[in-house]
Each structure stands twice: as structure tokens, then as C-alpha cells.
Amino acid sequence: MWRLQWLFGWLHFVLAVPSIYLLLGLPLVMREHGWSGTEIGLFQLTGLPAVFKFLLAVPVQRYRSAQGHYRLWALGLCLLLALLLVLASQQAITANRLLLFGLAFAAGVLATWADIPVNALAIRLLPQTQRLRAGGIRSAALFLAAIVGAGVMLLVQQHWGWQAPFLLMAAGLLLALPFLGWLQEADVNALKPQAIKPARVDWAGFFRQPGARLWIWLLLSGFPFLGAAWLYLKPLMLDQGMPVQQVAWVAGVGGGVVGALASVLGARLVQRLGPARVTPWFMVGALLALLALTGAVWLQASTSWLVAAAYLLAAAMGAVSSLMFGLMMFFSRRHHQANDYGLQASLFVLTRLLVPIGAGALLDRSGPAGMLAGLCLATLGVCVLAMAARRSIDQATEGAFIPVERVDQASGKRSSPIRSTQ
């Protein structure tokens, strides 16, 4: 199972780095070359495809192949993204700006699209006992991608020029393709070619799952308030008098490392205790992290308190995001993995984009402490919702925490790390 986990973790990493570089790293290069604030702001629209994952999931779920349904989709889309990154490397920052926007938008579409079959493949191949660990690894990969995409790639660009980041990102994708090609989808390959028919989209069936409605509300609200606080953390640190370089190290590098570690350790804790029991405690931890940050800003506390609060917030983000990603896998039905994952991912991204807008308005109206207090109040409501959703989560994950060794002993067989165990 670890071979699969590492492969999917690497795929999440190499798919996330291009989007983060284009959205968070490249604007600095654009500004150096005379792009206006409006042009840089409009360039952020290249991240819009993430909202429409539920539509991109339809062809992935509908059109099947006897040689490996999700595997072939993932291979094709990752290859196209790598080729597009190579094409972008042949342009220049001084090239036609509309052309650069078009290439970046196409890269955003392909990265978002490829994420769907990759996650659907993970849901299909990983047994239930491994899904929460997969959520932790995915969350850790995204934190590390943020460090690389918004930091390391800028250094690469400064030292080796415009082409280097794009070629490195393309190489990372191409490196994963042979390993992805060796995977086998047992339940698809078991079907005869004439039995492979287009699958019907059944979003209504997703909401008819036991506990799905409460889960959707938790999915919509569990992460965005933490994400909004993290988005405004750097400006808040600057307002508190912290030097720019220190802010970059604390919030950029240190926060990413803490978030990645919390993702892995949080997933391990959930595996030991079960998600139904841990979910409310993770939300309480998120509330405590926000309260610590609110206190540090309101009291204009020392730098060490502010740094400690920032790391608490990063740890809460890592633990909560790993839990959310893991539970998304449990609420994806068999034979509908792509559609169900795409729908949940769209809802997750939608609130993650909308909440910071409201938080920004609250910041302008009530100041930093008022904004953080509002986020704390909203997170308190999430804690109550998490308590109410425990039974729904327990229903979705029932039977998922039997040790693999016990299952193997009972069956007298040793499960393969490559073929599906479902």
C-alpha cells in the first residue's frame, strides 16, 4: 500500500505545483516586468476551473475503457499538461499577454481535470483502511507544493531563467507516468469490452447516501474559515510590525512544513481513533488556533506569540484538510468515484473562494481583531455541526478500521499492493 500512497502523493504534488506557481509565484515576476495590478488580478481567473470540477468529472465517469478507465484518463491528461508546460516554457514573460493567459488557463483546466481521475483511481485501488492515510498524504503534498510553487520555483526562475520552472514541473509529471501506467484496475479489467458502456450521471444518488446531507454542510464549512485566516495572516503579521523576510519564512516555509507534518500525524490519529470520534476534536482545535491568533492580534502581543499562533493555525489547517480529503473518499460511491469526487471538490473550492471575500469585507469594516472574532464565531458553529455529524460519518466509515492483517488472516490470502482490494 505504501507504494500506491507514495505514487498518489507524488501525483497530487506535481499537479498542484503548476497551479500554485501560476497563481501565487508568477505574479511577482509579472510585476517586475511591468504588469499592472488589474492585469495580475485578471490573471487569477486561471484558477477558476477548480470551481467546475463537477462538470469536468462527467466525461471522466461517462466514457470508459476496458484497458483501465481512470488510469488512461489520468495518463492522457497528465501527458497533455506536461506538453503544455513545455510549450509555455518556449514563450517569454514579454510575449503576448493574452497568449500567456490562454496557456495558463489551459494549464489550470488540465491540472484540475487530471486531479479527478487521479483521485478516483485512488478511491478505487486503496482499501477503506488506507483512505484516511491517503487524505493525510494528499494534504501534506499540497502544503509542500505551496512551498515549492510559491517559493522554490521563484528562486529557480531567478537563477536559470523563464524556462526552468516550467521544464522542471513537466519533468515531475513525466516521471510519474510510467508508474501510473503499470497500475491495474481490477474491477474494470474484469469486464468484457462489450460490457463497457457510458456511465449515467447520478448526482441525486450522491445526496441519497446515508448521512450525505450533514456531510455536505461540514464539507462546505469545515475548512474555509481556517483558510481565510491563513490568507490574511501575512498582512496581519506585517501590520504587527514583523519584517517582510521573517513573515515569508514563518508563514511561507515554516507554516507549510508544520501543515504537512500535521496532515500526516492527523491522518494517523484519525486511523487510530476513528473519524467520527476525532472530527469534533479537530474542529475544536481549529477554534483554539483561531482564538490564539485573535488574542495575539487584539493584544498586539510579542512576535513569539504571533509566530506560535501562526504555527497552531497551520497545524489545524493540516489536520482538518487531511480529514476532509479522507472523508471525501468515503462519500464517493463505487462506480461513481469521478462524479462524486468532482462534486465534493467543487463545493469545497466554492466556499474556500467565497469566505475570504466576506472576511475581507469584515476586515475593512471591523479591523483585524473583528475579522478574526467573526471567523472564531463561525468556527464555533462548525464545532456544533461536527458533533451533529458524528453519526453520519460513522455510517459512511463503518467497517473501515479493521486491521488489514486480521482481514488477511481471516481470508487466508495476502492482498496485492497493486490490484484493487475492494
UniProtKB/TrEMBL annotation:
Keywords: Membrane, Transmembrane, Transmembrane helix, Transport. Its main location: membrane. It comes from Pseudomonas ogarae (strain DSM 112162 / CECT 30235 / F113). InterPro entries: AmpG_permease/AT-1, MFS, MFS_trans_sf. The keyword Membrane applies. Pfam families: MFS_1. The chain crosses the membrane at residues 7-30, 42-60, 72-93, 99-123, 135-156, 162-183, 214-233, 248-269, 281-299, 305-331, 343-363, 369-389. It is found in: Membrane. This is MFS transporter. It is a multi-pass membrane protein.
